[in-house]
Amino acid sequence: MAELLIALDKYVKSGIHIGSKFKTKFMEPYIFKVRPDGLSVFNIQKINDKLSAACNFIAQYEPDKILIVCRKESGKKPLKTLSKITGIRVITGRYLPGSMTNPNYLGNYMEPEILFVCDPWADRQAIKDALKIGIPIIALCDSNNTTNNIDLVIPCNNKAKKALSLIFYVLTKEYLKAKGKIKSDKEFNYKLKDFI
After folding, report:
1. Strand pairing partners for 115?
2. 21 with 38: CB under 8 angstroms?
3. d(CA 111, CA 22)
4. CA distances (Å), 16 to each of 20, 87, 152, 182, in order?
5. What is the pTM of this model?
6. Contact residues for 90 (Cβ-Cβ < 8 A; gap 6+)
7. Most exposed of 23, 27, 101, 157 (fewest Cβ within 10 Å)?
């Protein structure tokens, strides 16, 4: 059981653990309980453990070899902040098919070695391209997602602005620590509100 990357109350306040009313068999292992109103509740320790694993995995790559894709509006600000701080390439909004597979795609072609998506359904075109070139895929998955073709699942609320902000805040901090840019959380000069 990994130590929490951020205080438990911050996880709870962000709503990161609140899933949707629909749940797939893929996501059942991560669900702690179903509330009386039908919403699934994720196990926060499992969210933390998977987020920690993702941070460690991503840290093996240089920023220009990582691509994070998020079609959702709620992921735009946190990802732009992450990109500014780390240099990791992000695409917010529509991902153009062929961006990873067609070298003749002037201005948009890229060769990442790892793909991170905010929602396997909304970002499915990026996943299709990543599968064609055979790179690992990390995805934020809500209770209603399927996890086919995902190498590392991070169970969480992948719709709410506060939840996405918290994830990318933690990812940014842990990436900088793993890369030796900062030694501890105290040296991280950004607050969670900078990502919201």
Report:
1. 67, 137
2. yes
3. 35
4. 11, 25, 17, 26
5. 0.94
6. 67, 68, 69, 70, 79, 80, 82, 83
7. 101
Per-residue pLDDT of the chain (196 residues; tens, 9 = 90+): 568 999 999 999 999 999 999 889 999 999 999 999 999 999 999 999 999 999 999 999 999 999 999 999 999 999 999 999 999 999 999 999 999 999 988 778 999 999 999 999 999 999 999 999 999 999 999 999 999 999 999 999 999 999 999 999 999 999 999 999 999 999 999 999 999 8
Q: For 104, which DSSP code?
A: T
User: 136, 139, 192: which is closest to 166 by C-alpha?
Assistant: 192
112 CB-near residues (< 8 Å, 6+ apart): 65, 66, 67, 89, 100, 130, 135
